[in-house]
Amino acid sequence: MLSQTYPVNEIIVVDDGSTDDTKSIVLQYDIKYIYQSNSGVSSARNTGIKNASNNWIVFLDSDDIFEDTKLQIQVAFHKSNPNILCSYTDELWIYNDKIIKQNKHQQKEQNVTFLNSLSLCKIGVSTFMVDRRVFEDVGLFDEKLVACEDYDMWLRILLRYNIGYIDKKLTKKIAGHKGQLSFETIGIDYYRVLALEKHKDTKYKNDVEKEISKKIDILYKGAIKHKNHFLIDFCERYKFNI
């Protein structure tokens, strides 16, 4: 962030209960440091949003890296498209220090919509830029979701807003290390179903219910295989209308 070609007048680091020397490192720079007891990624992002003084907000997760021109390019996009209040970019995935090719379904799309985002998360949080008025409208990240809080957020935004896309790899997503939610969360589709349930009364009701049914089938097979009784009970309530 400190090496951005676009001037950054506020950087906020939310320390979500770390036990390393994060504070001593951060305080060497002109950075707003906020410590909180470990409350999860949604809480940390919400704390940052609430303490931000600027209208435009970006996120940088601890395991991601911005390209130096990221903000410059994204700001220029919004100046050219003043009616678009949020955008995202392509990203480079690095796994165990090697660049990896994304599968077809993981690749970014020029036209991200509510419907084509039902199956999986289309947007990397660290690629996202948003006018805070969007959060004032749709709400903050759902702190009850242990995972898929980003999937949930994009669906809520896409119900009301267009999200612009910049076809440049302006963020490096570092994967493959211990502690990443996407790798370590069991039954991740459970959280996607919880997110989808919020939209069962919208104009996309039928599409949402079909997607929930697909995810329940996948989740149920995995729950039986791993003998996860909580997820088995959850799925059976759906499958058999218990």
Q: Could you spell the SSE succession in H and E letters? A: EHEHEEHEEEHHEHHHH
Q: Tell me the number of strands.
A: 8
How many domain units? 2
Q: What is the fold-level CATH name, i.e. the topology of the largest domain? A: Spore Coat Polysaccharide Biosynthesis Protein SpsA, Chain A
Rounded mean pLDDT is 92
Distance between the termini: 50 Å
Structural class: alpha/beta
- Poorly predicted tracts of residues: none
| Number of helices in the DSSP assignment | 9
CATH class of the largest domain: Alpha Beta
Strand content: 15-25%
CATH homology-level superfamily of the largest domain: Spore Coat Polysaccharide Biosynthesis Protein SpsA, Chain A
Percent range of helical residues:
25-40%
Mass-distribution shape: globular
Kindly provide the radius of gyration, computed on alpha-carbon positions and rounded to a whole number of angstroms.
19 Å
Structure keywords:
Spore Coat Polysaccharide Biosynthesis Protein SpsA, Chain A; single chain; alpha/beta; 2 domains; 8 strands; 36% helix; 242 residues; six-stranded mixed β-sheet; two-stranded parallel ribbon; globular
Walkthrough of the structure:
There is one protein chain. This protein has 242 residues and is α/β, with parallel strands linked by helices. The chain has two domains: 12-184, Spore Coat Polysaccharide Biosynthesis Protein SpsA, Chain A; 189-239, no CATH class. It is 36% helix and 18% strand. It has helices spanning 22-26, 41-51, 70-80, 132-138, 149-158, 181-184, 189-196, 205-225, 229-239, and strands spanning 12-16, 32-36, 56-58, 64-66, 86-95, 98-100, 129-131, 164-175. The strands form two sheets. Strands 3, 4, 5, 6, 7 and 8 form a six-stranded mixed sheet that branches. Strands 1-2 form a two-stranded parallel ribbon. A hairpin with a 2-residue loop joins β5 and β6. α7 (189-196) packs antiparallel against α8 (205-225) and α8 runs antiparallel to α9 (229-239). It starts with 11 loop residues before the first strand and ends with a helix.
